[in-house]
Amino acid sequence: MHGLINKAFESFLTDTFGQPVWHQLLRQADLWDQIGPEGFETLHVYPDEVTCRMVAVATALLGRPSDSLLEDMGTYLVSHARTAPLRRLLRFGGGNYTDFLRSLDDLPGRARLAVPELVLPALTLNETGAGQFQITCRGCQSGFGHVLLGILRGMADDYGALVVLDHLGPAAPAPGEPAGPAGEALSIAVHDPAFHAGREFVLAAAGAGG
Amino acid sequence: MSDGLTRPGPACSPAALGRLMPLYAWLDRDGVLIDAGPTLRKLAGPGAIGRPLGEVFTLVHPRSFAQAQDLTAAAALRLVLRGPVATAFKGVAVPLGGVEGGVLLNLSFSYGLREAVRDHGLSDTDFAATDLAFELLYLTEANGAVMAEAKKSSERLRGARAQAMEQALTDPLTGLRNRRGLDRALTRLGDSGQAFGLIHVDLDRFKAINDTLGHAAGDLVLAAVGARLRHVVRDADSLARIGGDEFVVLLPGLAERDMVRRVAERILAALAQPVGRDDGEPPIGVSASLGAVVWDGAAAGPAPRPLSVEQLLEEADRALYRSKDAGRGRVTFAEPAA
């Protein structure tokens, strides 16, 4: 998996649980020699197995189910000061939360535009009713849906939207697609896209970008 | 092709035109602004309508025009907004029906897009949904974020490289230079042509300490000797451990025997104190034999002696063994080379 994703997990764990816990995790996951105290290189692509081992050890070490841990990581990614650039890039998705949801189809393309080697799971948004959405991610590592859930929750707060989010479990295969576990579905009910003011977003912020 | 001229073309309301092209300007035959898209109105101010184009913008290319129709000849127009913020635009003009000699001019931000968005506080609704400006802003910002990560990564690598180089030139036990580090310091000194003194220090009966008290005690002595040497010399001097119990002291600028001898005597005095142990065992007595050599620099004499690191260390080594033969715990100077 891409170094940016691994680095995100590393930042989440160090900022939330402290560096000693992160170092302990690296040793327990037998990754100390490979990763070291400097942590992941953000522009290097690591074997998927590294990420899986890291998440499994984190779950055991912290005594937390992986679902809630991954969801917390998603929220961390769009709310912590250290990851502010990501939150800004996601805000380019649209002027309000509903537009943002509609931009998720483009997310893998937008990621590739910025970092050609960064492969994100394909996301499909379906509007199932007024303010009712269902998102399916395919070709993703198991658990990605929970990270996405955390991101969507964090972004709802960022936009000031009142929403109810649910993880629906494994997604039914798309028509014509072989059945398999490689998909997860989420439901989103947008009750009020402008429930509170949300956080400010200036399009060309000083210091951002260049 | 006559079809395109005779068939009635599409027509749309100013509001619809504004959605498609928020930066459009409609000019009459004399180049006076009849109407403008919502974003251009926002940028140029409410007073812009009814004024000549040349008063609202500084024309860069073309510099002037007689009739609005003349603008349609240029492949691309360049204009700069007059006012507190000089925003640059490029544009394209086409003849327009409805008003005799009228022209429709569409503008876009050029490379100054980011600055324009910042200076005028523009948001997504100020652009047409099909305009790539938004994607461009996104890309600029994403690139910036990736560059920042790449920079961090390269700084980490530089740090690691510097650390590896440092370790490769340093003896981990004493923190002094190792043989490689000494060679490097000597070569640099030789290249500079500066005169210097060199003292070769060999601990007396060190093997006996290792054999009877163990390697831990031996390491303790070596570390203590390193610390004491560091205490005796100046900051500009270089210290190295080049073998088990052999040390070399480089003294740049010290080419007189008397001065080098004084340093040697300070070293002998510093090493005369037994090395204490924190495990309650009795302190370990140490002494050393020293061989010294003076290099008077490449500039000395009509035929300067070329500096050979090997030869210099050999001379110091021979002097050192004469110290040992003469009863240890003393310094001897190398005889000038024949």
Keywords, separated by commas or semicolons:
heterodimer, A: alpha+beta, B: alpha+beta, 5-stranded mixed beta sheet, 19% strand
Overview in brief:
With 210 residues, chain A is α+β, with helices and mostly antiparallel strands. In chain A, 46% of the residues lie in helices and 16% in strands.
Trace the largest sheet of chain B across and list its strands: 2-1-6-5-4-3
Taken from the alpha-carbon principal axes, the silhouette of chain A is: globular
Oligomer: heterodimer
Question: Tally the helices of chain A: what do you get?
Answer: 9
Kindly report the average pLDDT value of chain B.
88
Question: What structural category arises from helix and sheet content of chain A?
Answer: alpha+beta
Number of strands of chain A: 4
Based on Cα principal axes, name the global outline of chain B: rod-shaped
Low-confidence stretches of chain B: none
Helix content of chain B: 40-55%
Q: Can you list the strand order of the major beta sheet of chain A?
A: 1-2-4-3
Strand content of chain A: 15-25%
Number of strands of chain B: 11
Roughly what fraction of the amino acids of chain B lie in strands?
15-25%
Radius of gyration of chain B: 41 Å
As a percent range, the share of helical residues of chain A equals 40-55%
The largest sheet of chain A, given as strand count, sense and whether it forms a barrel, is: 4 strands, antiparallel
Structural write-up:
The complex is a heterodimer of chains A (210) and B (338). By secondary structure, chain A is of the alpha+beta class. In chain A, 46% of the residues lie in helices and 16% in strands. Chain A has nine helices and four strands. Chain A has helices at 3-17, 19-28, 32-35, 48-62, 66-79, 84-91, 97-102, 107-114, 144-159; strands at 122-129, 132-138, 162-170, 183-192. A four-stranded antiparallel sheet of chain A has the order 1-2-4-3. Chain A is globular and about 50 Å long. The relative contact order of chain A is 0.13. Chain B is an alpha+beta fold and 338 residues long. Helices cover 41% and strands 19% of the residues of chain B. In chain B, the strands form two sheets. A six-stranded antiparallel sheet of chain B has the order 2-1-6-5-4-3, sandwiched between helices. Chain B has a five-stranded mixed sheet with strand order 8-9-7-10-11, with helices on both faces. In chain B, a hairpin with a 6-residue loop joins strand 4 and strand 5 (88-95). In chain B, helix 8 runs antiparallel to helix 9 and helix 9 (215-232) packs across helix 10 (257-272). The model of chain B has no long low-confidence stretch (mean pLDDT 88). The interface between A and B is medium-sized, with 24 and 28 residues.
